[in-house]
Amino acid sequence: MGTERDRSLRDELLVAAAELLARRGYKRLRMQDVADAVGVSRQTVYNEFADKWGLAQAVVLRDNDAYLDGVDEALSRHEDLRSAVAAAVTYTLKTASDDPLKKAILTGADSEDLLPLFTTRADPLLFAARARIVTHAVSQWPDLDRDTVAEIADAAVRLTLSHVVLPAEPPETVARLIARIVTRYLGEAAP
Fold first, then answer.
1. TM spans, by residue (predicted)?
2. C-beta of residue 93 within 8 angstroms of C-beta of residue 163
3. Which of 97-101, 118-122, 142-146 has the lowest mean pLDDT?
4. Collapsing DSSP states into helix, strand and coil, what is residue 14?
5. Sign of torsion, CA 135 136 139 144?
6. Could you tell me if residue 34 is inside a domain?
7. Where are the alpha helices (DSSP H) in 50-117?
């Protein structure tokens, strides 16, 4: 288990890397620049993340944790499931559309390098989101079946992520649709 200093250093490196990724893109991100921004050696960055891809993945996962804090807050503000899901999806879509890092990953000059973090190599991101949403939902609505919530949470997270990657409708419209899908599924699947 890491010390407080280790966690603080890791956070500093991730903040620096996120800023550099948003400004420069993946191809122009250098481990030395991340090290210089924090005042450590390049080897320290490699020791923490192994390689540039590991650093980029850690940045996206850290960013995802911040999103999930907002999702938890949105879910908590509503007693009924449909309103809660709609609020969480709206929050996610609106926040993602204004996020400089997301914009760089999705639309930047070298976005094809990082796009797999949201598509073909998104398993860590999807797993973390699904697990956190399931934990929150069964805590807030204890009558829901955990396995059923896990099934629909997986689908809802993937659907929301697809709208982050390729927006088709206004966030509120998408949020109402996903909320309707979730509540219908849970209603039909309930014993």
1. none
2. yes
3. 118-122
4. helix
5. negative
6. no
7. 52-76, 81-97, 100-107, 111-114
On whether the CB atoms of residues 114 and 26 are closer than 8 A, the answer is yes
Does residue 122 lie within any of the structural domains?
Answer: yes
3-state class (DSSP) for residue 59: helix
| DSSP letter assigned to residue 117 | G
Burial of residue 152 (CB within 10 Å: 0-12, 13-18, 19+) is buried
Is residue 89 in a domain?
A: yes
What's the one-letter identity of residue 164? V
- Residue 191 pLDDT level (bands cut at 50, 70, 90): very low
* Higher-pLDDT residue of 107, 63: 63
By the 8 A CB rule, do 152 and 185 touch?
yes
| Count of domains for the chain | 1
73-110 burial, b for 16+ CB within 10 Å, e for fewer? Answer: ebbeeeeebbbbbbbbbbbbbebbeebebbebbbebee
pLDDT at 103: 80
